[in-house]
Structures are given as C-alpha cells and as structure tokens.
Design a protein that fits this description.
The chain is of the alpha/beta class and about 350 residues long. The protein is about 35% helix and about 25% strand. It has two domains: about 10-195, no CATH class; about 215-345, Glutaredoxin, CATH 3.40.30.
Length: about 350
C-alpha cells in the first residue's frame, strides 16, 4: 500500500475551523498493542507528505490513542520512535481502530477498521493474507470502476494495485477536490506518464511501447546492454527483472524465476536481471549461491535518487518485471511474475 502526501501549514484561524479541531472524534486513532512496552513513543507518518509525522503519543497500559490534525483524508504508517513499522492505514473522519500484535509478523499486513476506507482495505488485506490475490485485485477494480474518487482512488493510482498507468491517470482526473488539490498529485501524474511509456500499449492503440536500453556490468565486470540480449536471435522473449538481495519479495520470487528459466530457456526465453544492490560484495556471491545462471547485471547508481533506469522505467518499487518481444523490442507485459508466467505459457507452449 503506500504512497506520499503534502501537508500544508494552516493559519491559526484555519486550524480553529478544521474538522479535527472542531470535532475531536473526526480523526481519532486508537487501539491495543501487544509486544511493545508501555511508555514507548509512537508516531503516525503521512506517506503523502514525505513521511512527516502528523501525530505522536505513547503506549499506556497496552493501549494507545492519537488525535492527528489533517486537512483531508490521507494514508499513514504507524511507527515506534525507533522506526519499527507496526501498521499502515487511512486517516479519515471517524474513530479508527488499529489493534497491533507486534509478536505476529503477518499482523502488519492487516490494516485498521472503523471507517469506510479502512474497512474496505482490511477486507482486501485479508484476501491477500489468505493467498486470494486474484479476488483481492478484483475487489479493487470493482471499487474503482464504481466511481471511487476519494482516498482509496488516490491509493489505487499511486500503488502497484493499478495494473495500468493509463487507467491510474484517468482515476487522478476524477479525484475529489480536497485530494486533487494536493501538490503531490502533480508529481504522481508525471511518474505515471513516464511509466505508461514502458507498459504494453492499450489494446485500441495504433502504436507500441518499446524497451529503453541500458548497459551495466555483470559479475565479471563486463558491460552487458539490454539491447544485446533482446537483439540476440536465440532469444524470442526477454524477461527484464529489477530486484535486490535486500528485497524480501524479490528473494521469494527467485525459485519461480529459476523454474521459469529451466522450463523456457531452451524455447527462447532469456532473463536480464538488474540488481539494485549498492554493495557489490553482497550481490556477486548471492548469484552463485542461488544458481542464478541467466544474465545478471548491477545498477551502479541504484535507487530512486540516482539511477537513470529507475527514472526511465518509473519504478515504483521492486520487484518489477517486464516481458519484451525479442523480434520487435515491444514491451508485451509489465506486472507480477505470476501474471507474466501465465503469458509465457501461451507464448511458448
């Protein structure tokens, strides 16, 4: 889940008139907390405002309560003062119940309840937790297609839930005024516009989107370009994979990548994996230890701040995978490895 926001400093008069001031129940957050000691400081960080704190409190008798001041609904993360992430959920009018069990790693994936956006989000979180990903994504599409234009719409457009950047841009165009006016929206629109250039063109489009070339060193220090792999006549399709050794979902995907490579390499599939590891010493031995025998290179300026390819492909996070046609260079698919595997099944059967 997860995005960013922008909190505009309000005048004293505006503060007095804001809903959080006139009605303390407008944005009350409370809950029980297990596995965190009494007296521990807690804070709510606004993801849409560069993770700035909008409220702070302490654990008392195994409970906590916040009364954050916000001017419009937003999405927040609950952290301890030493940066342990506990929950994430939405701030909106109402009493939000955010019970925490820090002894259960899976608890962090289940948000809050008590308000419309949080109740919906918790519903789909529970589907994801049960492994019912298709059902969860379907509920999101149903919600958005019904005309949602509030904080859930912004969350959808700014996260990996939106499979199409074109559709995400359309959702931005209909956001409610109190959310659409935030400066963050302009940055998000620019990012989505760039990302749309590295997604398959819409079905009714007369044009196609093509891969953007890159060249990085492999484990032996040799520069290997993506174009050299795509243009190799032996490769009918190229899977472009962005990952890192510190990324847990990336590590979880490695067995599937290995199985995919073993199944389809002789039929014309090649993988071009781009590591976002800043430490080369972590990356090299990892490749050997885990039998990653396909093309592996390392981004020499990894991360959102310095990586040209991160910007070119408008990466929201990793892992991110794209499927490229080796004959035309056209981007056929951008999405989860699971979805791309289904695509390859039909292409290379």
């Amino acid at each position: 889940m997860k995005t960013r926001f922008f909190f505009v400093a309000l005048s004293c008069l505006a503060l007095c008139l804001s809903a959080c001031q006139s009605d303390p129940e407008y944005c009350t957050v409370k809950g029980t907390i297990k596995g965190i000691e009494d007296g521990t400081r807690l804070r709510l960080d606004d993801e849409y405002n560069h993770f700035k704190a909008v409220a702070k409190t302490r654990v008392k008798d195994g409970t906590f309560e916040f009364h954050p001041r916000i001017s419009a609904p937003t999405h927040v993360f609950l952290y301890t003062s030493d940066d342990k992430q506990l929950k994430d959920f939405f701030l909106e009018p109402g009493v939000i119940q955010a019970d925490v069990d820090f002894t259960d790693e899976k608890d962090m994936e289940i948000g809050a309840s008590g308000t419309p956006a949080n109740d919906f989000d918790q519903e789909v979180d529970l589907l994801f937790a049960k492994g019912e990903d298709d059902a969860a994504f379907a509920r999101w599409e149903e919600k958005i297609d019904a005309g949602e234009n509030g904080i859930l719409a912004l969350y959808y457009a700014s996260s990996s839930i939106a499979k199409s950047s074109i559709k995400a841009l359309e959702v931005l165009d209909r956001l409610a005024p109190d959310i659409a006016s935030k400066p963050y929206i302009a940055d998000l629109r620019e990012e989505l516009s760039r990302r749309a250039k590295t997604e398959p063109a819409p079905g009714n489009s007369q044009s196609a989107n093509y891969f953007i070339d890159m060249e990085y060193p492999d484990a032996q220090g040799n520069l290997v370009s993506l174009s050299s792999v795509v243009n190799n006549p032996s490769n009918r399709y190229v899977l472009l994979d962005f990952w890192a050794t510190w990324c847990v979902p990336c590590l979880e995907a490695i067995p599937s990548l290995k199985a995919l490579y073993a199944k389809y390499h002789e039929k014309g599939l090649e993988i071009y994996s781009v590591s976002e590891d800043s430490n080369e010493k972590n990356w090299k031995p990892f490749l050997t230890k885990n039998g990653m025998t396909w093309v592996n290179v390392r981004d020499v300026n990894p991360g959102r701040g310095g990586s040209k390819v991160w910007s070119a492909y408008a990466l929201h996070g990793i892992p991110t995978t794209l499927l490229i046609d080796g004959e035309t260079g056209e981007i056929l698919f951008r999405g989860t490895l699971k979805d791309i595997e289904a695509e390859l099944e039909s292409l290379l059967q």
